Amino acid sequence: SAVISQKPSRDICQRGTSLTIQCQVDSQVTMMFWYRQQPGQSLTLIATANQGSEATYESGFVIDKFPISRPNLTFSTLTVSNMSPEDSSIYLCSVGDRANTGELFFGEGSRLTVL
Amino acid sequence: AQSVTQPDIHITVSEGASLELRCNYSYGATPYLFWYVQSPGQGLQLLLKYFSGDTLVQGIKGFEAEFKRSQSSFNLRKPSVHWSDAAEYFCAVARTGSARQLTFGSGTQLTVLP
Questions:
Q1: Are A61 and A113 in contact (CB under 8 A)?
Q2: Using the beta-carbon criterion (under 8 Å), do B99 and A45 form an inter-chain contact?
Q3: How much is the pLDDT for B98?
């Protein structure tokens, strides 16, 4: 298992601003995943953060809107840029298990509200 | 591509009653199947998982799930629900060996009445 810490846990932001979410893992992991959970919805994968290379984005998500950093094997950041009310969501960081079975461990999430 | 369907958006049960949450998946081969729980204001916690072998799997907090290949289902059950079980439950399926390919269902919100 892995212990994942995210911050901020919640924030209220103004339209047009940007916010960076940090994710710290207690062990070295190859891949880290960023998910979005819009109100009342399921989880949607935004991107996979790879150490030493650019993040891999899923369809519908672009680097200009959600830039990701992965400076080392235990840390990643996700920035939500030029926010609008539609970006109000819970953003979750997760890591996979070492056997790469698909099992994920999640942080507690960062709940963003954009006014 | 795989998909997951949770037909029940919201379920209400009385404390002490039994519970079954439905999950159907679509995938050509035998998938890896998961149930996660999300309590209010929390991240997701794994309840149980199925990879292969015994089709009845036991999880944490007294939950179990049964894989039925003929019905493409992986329903979650608990014989006696506790008030603390009130949460959102997500079924998920992964293509073998790829965490990136994890697909989540839309979730079932469980309310427990005293």
A1: no
A2: no
A3: 59
Of chain A, the end-to-end C-alpha distance in Å amounts to: 36
Using one digit for the tens of pLDDT, what is the confidence trace for B63-109? 999 999 999 999 999 999 999 999 999 999 886 555 556 889 999 99
A interface with B, Cβ–Cβ < 8 A, is 4, 6, 31, 33, 41-43, 45, 48, 56, 92, 94, 96-97, 100-109, 111
User: A39-71, pLDDT tens digit by residue?
Assistant: 888 899 999 998 888 899 999 999 999 999 999
Q: Residues of A27-65 as b/e, b for ≥16 C-beta within 10 angstroms?
A: eebebbbbbbbeeeebbbbbbbbebeeebebeeebeeeb
Amino acid at A98: R
Closest by Cβ to A109, choosing from B32, B43, B105: B43
Partners of B49 on chain A (C-beta within 8 Å) are 101, 103
| CA proximity to B89, closest of B74, B99, B79, B100 | B74
- Distance (Å) from the alpha carbon of B68 to chain A's nearest alpha carbon: 20
Query: How many CB atoms neighbour CB A107 within 10 A?
Result: 27
Tokens of B98: 């790829």
Around Cβ A88, how many Cβ atoms within 10 Å?
17
Concatenated DSSP letters for B55-88? SEEE-GGG-EEEEEGGGTEEEEEESS--GGG-EE
What CA–CA distance (Å, rounded) separates B29 from B17?
A: 35
